[in-house]
UniProtKB/TrEMBL annotation:
Cofactor: pyridoxal 5'-phosphate
The organism of origin for this protein: Solimonas terrae
Modified positions (N6-(pyridoxal phosphate)lysine) in chain numbering: 245
Binding site for substrate: 30, 141, 359
Gene (name only): bioF
SUPFAM superfamilies, per database record: PLP-dependent transferases
GO biological process terms held by the UniProt record: biotin biosynthetic process
Keywords: Acyltransferase, Biotin biosynthesis, Pyridoxal phosphate, Transferase
Lineage of the species this protein comes from: Bacteria, Pseudomonadati, Pseudomonadota, Gammaproteobacteria, Nevskiales
Protein name: 8-amino-7-oxononanoate synthase
Amino acid sequence: MADDARVASVPLAAHLAAELRRIREADLYRTRRVIDGGHGAQIQVNGRSCLNFCSNDYLGLAADPRLAEAARAALAQGTGSGASALISGYNREHQRLEEALADFIGTPRVLLFSTGWAANLGVLRGLLGRDDALVADELNHASLIDGGRLSGARYLRVPHADVTAFDAALQETAAARLRLLVSDAIFSMDGDLAPLPELAAVAARHGAALMIDDAHGFGVLGAGGRGTPEALGMRPDIQVGTLGKAAGAAGAFVAGDTDLIEYLVQRARSFVFSTAQPPAVAAAARRGLELIREEPERRARLFDNIRRFRDGAAALGIALVDSQTPIQPLLLGDAARALSLSQQLFEQGFWVAAIRPPTVPRGTSRLRITLSATHQPGQIDALLDALAAGMRANP
Ligand code: PMP
């Protein structure tokens, strides 16, 4: 490399200070708020009561005492699993949860991971290598992007939900050993559904496999809450679901055929080399799964709330993105505008997250409103009024 092309060495402290300044000046600086207590939609933040409109606890199970009770019973054996699942961390609670999930989804086998991030990384890095190709929707979750990059496979990023582009990308990668098409099922920042039946047909036509990340659909969509595949009447080769959203606990699973699961047990590094989730968390997730099954009225309430929010927004002239799921984005464009509106709403007692780059593409900053079965109709109406007033004040 020529001398003049070399990057000058900088001390770490100077680098961090400069980068943080740059992030702050672009209105992209992120901070955390501390939750002191409360449960469901009504929580206390920094000692103040507020309504949570940005949680993924879609069914209100995260604070359900029955999940806490299931966890408490399992805690009698201790807190930590003590090891990875392949060493000595695989507890009866994990096995019961895997079996319950497989039975619920109607799939031969399920493998637990400690997070959805770990599941996506484990599958993609474990399954694909340099001779393979990954065809991915451009708006896929960050964990799918990172997993794909880490795999070393050829990575083709296609325009959002563009079935023809997926088709062309598969055509282009006909020489690859293994071809995997991967898509979020519900897009986490937009709330729209992937065209899964069409993607399954395209994959089948090319002899490729289809993986979906149903983090936001599991427990929410489908008559039985089995997720986006149930709602759309299809079955992917690989289905990832998370347990920290509708199921009210934490962790994630991969569902598929026996050989897929056995292979992941051998090769998914985030499974092999990571401590198994605490058994109490698995117990809570299994109770959450039972309630997803037994209390369909939670889903009915959630969809009533989605309808109320969308109808109310239309009546007030608030233009929403076309989403029929609990994720309801309000596109604002400018990061500073999204931040200021979010801050203003917070001061009025509504917690609505401002989503900015790099989470979403530049110029598409937004408020991401998520609805839950626990929101009361009056709370949704109050948020709508505050949103309309905020939009008027921040044109
Ligand atoms: N996939 C999607 C689509 C997600 O939205 C998320 C989390 N926000 C994940 C995967 C990661 O799941 P986890 O939070 O369990 O790591």
